[in-house]
Amino acid sequence: MERIININQKLGEVVSIFPGSSEIFNELKIDYCCGGHDTLGAALKEKGLNSDVIVEKLNEEYDKFIKSNAEYRDWRKEKPTILMRHIEQTHHDFTKKELREIDALLFKVLKVHFSHHAEELLKVHRLFGALKTELEEHLVKEEENLFPLIRAYENTKDEKYKEAIEKFIKETEDEHDAAGDILKEMEEITRDFKAPEGACTTFKLVYDKLHNLEKDLFIHIYLENSVLFNMI
């Protein structure tokens, strides 16, 4: 079997080559979104994982993926405008919807289960509030500032747009890091988004939705940090 994936590739590059690697990275707690510029080898070493075993697994799963003839879109080969439309329609819309729904559900769970899980729920509620604010402002800045600038640059190749874009990219990556830090803290408090023993359906649902939001944000951030911003 030809080894397509190796330790010298960046995490973002590995996900671009093999989308299924994102699930493996999620299981291993490897940050391929905000940390997408790190090499696979460095990330595995930091986690104390056996690089030979993990690289072998990634290549085996990649081989299965290729043999399955699964449909796959390599976003690195698309125009920035096409990728940005996908990000907005897929990830921005999902994030906005989930933030609204989680907000209502989490308040309900906080009120109903306060007497038994006050410490955990208060922390999660505060962290979610910070995450919601961070993401709502972030999405607006992308839709109203960054993405229009990238579209203007793609159409004109005017350097004045490129300078403004580079400034926004730095701010955007910082905001990605801030959201990632909040999610990691929330993940720790909730035991990887697992509701306490005996929790009701709504309690489990809100933690499941937080987990799904996290996974979608990882893909969203990867597409921007490791694909879109490299097109500029």
Overview of the structural elements:
It comes from Clostridium punense. This is Regulator of cell morphogenesis and NO signaling. With 232 residues, this protein is mostly helical. The mean pLDDT is 95. It has helices spanning 11-17, 21-28, 40-47, 51-67, 80-156, 159-189, 201-228. It folds into two domains: 11-67, no CATH class; 78-231.
What's this model, at a glance?
With 232 residues, the chain is an all-alpha fold.
Name the features:
single chain; 232 residues; mainly alpha; 2 domains; RIC_family; metal-binding; Regulator of cell morphogenesis and NO signaling
Overall 3D geometry? globular
Low-confidence stretches: none
Determine Rg (CA atoms, Å): 19 Å
Mean pLDDT: 95
Largest sheet, strands/sense/barrel: none
- Please state roughly what percent of the residues sit in beta strands, choosing from under 5%, 5-15%, 15-25%, 25-35%, 35-45% or over 45%: under 5%
- Class by SSE composition: mainly alpha
Number of helices: 7
InterPro entries: Hemerythrin-like, RIC_family, ScdA-like_N_sf
Pfam families: Hemerythrin, ScdA_N
Keywords: Cytoplasm, Iron, Metal-binding
Subcellular location: Cytoplasm
